[in-house]
Design goal:
The complex is a heterodimer.
Chain A: E1 11-12, E2 17-19, E3 24-27, H1 29-35, E4 38-42, E5 49-50, E6 55-61, E7 65-69, E8 74-79, H2 81-85, H3 88-92, E9 101-105, H4 118-122
Antiparallel strand pairs in A: 1-2, 2-3, 3-9, 4-6, 5-8, 6-7, 8-9
Chain B: H1 39-43, H2 60-72, H3 94-100, H4 103-106, H5 118-135, E1 139-141, H6 147-164, E2 171-175, H7 181-188, E3 192-196, H8 206-212, E4 217-223, H9 235-244, E5 248-253, H10 265-268, E6 272-275, H11 277-280, E7 295-297, E8 309-312, E9 318-321, H12 338-374, E10 390-393, H13 395-399, H14 404-413, E11 420-421, E12 430-433, H15 441-460, H16 462-466, H17 479-484
Parallel strand pairs in B: 2-3, 2-4, 4-5, 5-6
Antiparallel strand pairs in B: 1-7, 6-7, 8-9, 10-12, 11-12
The chains are: A alpha+beta, B alpha/beta.
Chain lengths: 126, 502
Amino acid sequence: MANGKVPEDRWYTAEHEWIASDGTVGITDHAQDALGDVVFLDLPEVGRHVERGTVFGVAESVKSVSDLFCPVTGTVAAVNDQVKERPELVNQDPYGEGWLVRLDTVDPIQSGPVLLDAAGYRALPD
Amino acid sequence: MAVGTDGQQADRTPLIYDRSHPGRRGVRLPAPDVPALDEAALLGPALARTTPLGLPEVAENDVVRHYTALSQMNYGVDTGFYPLGSCTMKYNPKVNEWVAALPGFQRIHPLQPESTVPGLLELLASMESILGEISGMDAVTLQPAAGAQGEFTGVLLMRALIRARGEERHTLIIPDSAHGTNPATAAMAGYGVAVVPSNVRGGVDLAALRGLVNGDTAGLMLTNPNTLGLFEDEILEIADVVHSAGGLLYYDGANANAILGEVRPGDMGFDVVHLNLHKTFSTPHGGGGPGSGPVGVKAVLEPFLPGPRLQRAPSGALSWDDNRPQSIGKVRSYYGNVGIVLRALAYILSHGPDGLREVAHTAVLNANYLRARLADRYPTRYDRSVMHEFVLTLASQKERGASALDVAKRLIDYGVYPPTVYFPLVVKEALMVEPTETESKETLDRFADALAAIDQEIDASPEALKTAPHHTPVGRLDEAEAARHPNIRWSAGGGPPESTGP
């Protein structure tokens, strides 16, 4: 069971990333709570090709260092420069100002073998 | 007292700079009787400093009082209980210091002719063979200066053997509960890492391991007992699986305190071992002294050990042999931290084989006693007897509003050094406790009572946890702010720090 807020208008991975229909990617409320205060984000450059299920970046918190996994295959269209300067945005607003990257993808952004809807994410085993 | 998040201007202990008074001196030097040098002419304008040095101007007693006051803020095994999981913070007997301070050891130099230090060479040779006997290994190098360097040395030895066999293998297998140094070591040695998950009992998942090993497997790095304090009782099968695939087994000796004299890594199937003298063998830890991470190997790996090696002539005399064509090369100057090796040897010889066995027995007894005393409020994830340490999960405390960090900080108010938190990562809200064998039942009881009291405070006075610690020179630090915007340079006037020049 994933704790915290799980908005209905996006899709989720079992590794606690979310993706919105426009390709915006971030980490979930549950993930930011488990990580604790995020202090550093290593995010890819715009234009980089990323593969679904592979590591696209790293989130470092006061507790640990965690890989960030791509929900879809595509190209990095935008990076949230503000969150790189102020990683606390990930903790304060994980579904809004704390977004990480936006991906251009041809993969369908919908429930399936990889992406879960909100109910599916909430039902994940602990 | 609390330090503000800007780290400046807060109600803090004065720095030596704060004690500075223009013109005050501890020692007054006579005027030079040789011509002064013009450093700008000698060094050129690019290198000669043009701004004041800004050194503190203080009297001798200012300096002595300042640093004595700082030393009194220290907390260590000489002042109190230090149950820092995975670190084996045992008391360091003072006889070790006496031995290392003997003039015959202190007043010698590594480049002295061997014939002038036969006694020391004998002791080093005897330490090699003692550590070989304890670990079940055929040859030992005392050169690595720390546990992580021992790991690096050990993995380079494995790589050298694999290459000498004409093979290229690219992956090391590491459990998900491992110390972070293990994957770091693998990466340093050019290996990729495959993570083997823990099974429901907290040990290596054998089936998953079988699925991971193949012709690309260089080996497995394992701590036994593991970081959960659990003994890998399937170790012989684990070793078989790895060896059958042509891989080697690396033993991370971080937790060797639990098995001293009872079971040897060499008998469990390991090919390489490092031992942390500063954990298991009571030499000073952290800032208290350099580390030492001797590495033991099975005979097949001996040709690759770092040089120089001690060799014994037919006459019985020991000398250094650096003619070792297959060696991975030196990993540290001379022969490691010899003063630390001497302290550890003093510890081993003053205990003897039965004493060392008793060390392990008492360390395991203390850990299990504490675990049982804490169990009603602080469960462990795996309901098994442990070895020398255990990992509590504070998931229920977290639900009631206090994180493992809050509980750890509150323990400081009770006069205890906080245990390791948030490691290993496989346990939620982890609090990792290693009492060691050197603590009395009374100390263990005080610790258990403190944790029980803190658990009650979570409901009765939650603020006491959130704002802890309260009696230390600095209070709760804003770790996130410190990591995000580190401000680590003092500057006159308390303004923003000078930029770091090239």
